[in-house]
Design a protein that fits this description.
Layout (H helix, E strand, L loop, with lengths): L6 H4 L10 H4 L12 H4 L3 H16 L9
Length: 68
Amino acid sequence: MAQRKCPLCKRGIKEIDFRNTAQMTHFLTPWAKIKRSHDSGACSKHQRRLTHAIKQARFMALLAYTTR
């Protein structure tokens, strides 16, 4: 099987901004859970940065912790 390339590496994104919620919603499930790197296709470096940014955005009330 061919290995997928990280979507963030493809676009050349080095830093993930927690204020860019539109970008981060692609890495969340419909229940607002963070997708696994296997499902999202992100490399381990970007997955860690993405997780940190999502948690920071949730703390600042930019993203929801859960959905109803």
